Amino acid sequence: MSTTTILAALLIVAFAALGAAKIVAVPAMRSRAEHVGFTVAAYRRIGALEILGVVGVLVGVVVPAIGALAGTGLLLLLGGAVATHVRNGDGPKEIAPAVALGAIAMTYVLMIVGRLS
């Protein structure tokens, strides 16, 4: 199993879980939405984008360019998450998951782009 495949699997599992939780608005996600100043509907839309990112990463197994674009989209969502947490005065504990997933997404994208070059 290649490193790119492992990174893709990590992104798929993480964002499938997070996106689904946002879409169905589990209580923890409702609380997070309220904490950062988003409506539940807005959080659901973010969850839908995360699920679309998962689909793109899955398609990326066959069409690497799509995987790279999906990974970039997830990276942009994570940048927004970090900015939102910083804006709300959250500490490292709240920001760390987005930073860690961002590092995984960035590495995944760079590995695919490196192979496409």
Describe what this molecule looks like in 3D.
With 117 residues, the protein is mostly helical. The protein has one domain. 85% of the residues lie in helices and 0% in strands. The protein has five helices and no strands. α4 runs antiparallel to α5. The chain is globular, with a radius of gyration of 14 Å. The two termini are 21 Å apart.
Tags for this entry?
117 residues; mainly alpha
Short description:
By secondary structure, the protein is an all-alpha fold. The chain has one domain (3-116).
How many E strands? 0
Identify low-pLDDT runs. none
Rg, nearest Å? 14 Å
**What is the global morphology?**
globular
Strand portion: under 5%
Mean pLDDT: 95
Order of helices and strands: HHHHH
For the record, the count of structural domains works out to 1
- What is the overall number of helices? 5
Structural class: mainly alpha
The profile of the biggest β sheet is:
none
Euclidean distance between termini CA atoms: 21 Å
Helix content bin: over 70%
Helices and strands in order:
Blueprint: H1 3-23, H2 27-36, H3 40-59, H4 64-87, H5 92-116
Helix pairs in contact: 1-3, 1-5, 3-4, 4-5
